[in-house]
Amino acid sequence: MVELAEKILKENCTKELIDQAEDGTWQQKLWDLLEEAGIFTIGIPEENGGTGGDYADGFHILRLIGKYAVPLPVSETLIVNWLLHDSGFQTETVPTTLSIKNDEHIHIYEKENGFHVTGTLTDVPWGRYAKKLLTLAKIGNETHLVLLPLENVQIEKMNNLAGEPMDTIKIDQLVAQLQLKVVDEAALIERAQQILALSKAVMISGAMEIILDMTVQYTREREQFGRPIHRQQAVQQYLAILAGETAASLTITNKAIETFQQNNDVYELASAKVKTNEAAGKVAELAHQVHGAIGVTHEHRLHQLTRRLWSWREEVGNENDWAEKLAIKFLNSEDATLWEFLTRTNSKKSSGVKVKD
User: What is the mean pLDDT of residues 74-95?
Assistant: First the structure.
């Protein structure tokens, strides 16, 4: 599946396609190719309408989404399907998004002819193109997970630095039928934020991978003073730092994917988000330093990737937010000290911070 996805993206996700998407053109052909390949239901058993595989397969697909700067709500639709499957709902293959936050809910009032839905949600990724929205709703004193058709809603269009839609959706509509389920609000928000954070970290690492390849190739082709610039010591130093930050990001996200698949270890996940966020700034800065002015021109592809690094590192919490989460976990833990956790071996538990004697 990963090989198939890379083949599709390599052949179809060109710079020109990304430019068109940033100008407001929905890329239906690419969406259909990904849907036909079963990308949106990876990690869901076939007997439940999925493609099969596990979460790890899905995250490795998302790394490719970052690597090729795919201008579609692939990560959002895939994550929505994971949450729908956890809740016993049917999966979706239409463009779907989500907004699951501590401080935002919609309200639903039961009527004789259906449900009256009201509320405002901000920073909804790909909201203008989504057919359905997964969010939290209040019905009386209970919190429900709801999959809401986006019909007759008011959308205020906004974009992040990467040119990806981050819209405000104002809802005031009557819906005949809804998929609803009472949920533990705090637990669901935490799980959704963890999956979203890991997805951003993985996508950042994928973008870094291709930025490194592009930069190395550029230094071999670009000549100055009669020789390729990669022979200059200063440029070699930049490339070494780029390679180190990329390797570290790929390694830590791979470890976070492994532990998430096994036991949903928030420590590895938070560490991955912190590291990739920090590395994103360094990689973008050095790549542009090496490329010079050409890297920021519209004709060059580099800025399509670095703008995504700058955007994704701020989404679902920046490095300070996740470092604070880590610190609070350790300060409140009675199972192990920070040193004991950092020096644990593979024979020790990686779930939480518990370690064996």
Answer: 94
Under the banding of pLDDT at 50, 70 and 90, the label for residue 325 is confident
Residue 247 has phi, psi (to 5 degrees) of -60, -40
**Cα(56)–Cα(262) distance, integer angstroms:** 10
CA distances (Å), origin 31, targets 12, 57, 98, 131: 11, 19, 18, 13
**Residue type at 194?**
Q
Full-model pTM: 0.92
Q: Are strands 96-99 and 132-139 parallel, antiparallel or unpaired?
A: parallel
Contact 44, 50 (CB under 8 A): yes
Angle at 134 between CA 129 and CA 138, to 5 degrees: 130
- The tokens describing 259, both together, are 């532990």
Asked if residues 132 and 176 have their Cβ atoms less than 8 Å apart, the reply is no
CA-nearest of 92, 79, 165 to 126 is: 165
Predicted confidence (pLDDT) per residue in 282-324, tens digit: 999 999 999 998 888 999 999 999 999 999 999 999 999 999 9
Tell me if 78 sits within 8 A of 34, measured CB to CB: no
Measured distance CA(223)–CA(225) in Å, rounded = 7
Backbone angles phi, psi at 10, to 5 degrees: -65, -35
Distance CA 23, CA 66 (A): 19
Name which residue leads in pLDDT, 262 or 301.
Answer: 301
Q: Which long-range CB contacts under 8 A does 212-215 form with residues at least 24 apart?
A: 212/242, 212/243, 212/246, 212/283, 212/287, 214/287, 214/301, 214/302, 214/305, 215/239, 215/242, 215/286, 215/287, 215/290, 215/291
Q: Quote the pLDDT of residue 121.
A: 97
Angle at the Cα of 205 (from 203 to 206), degrees rounded to 5? 65
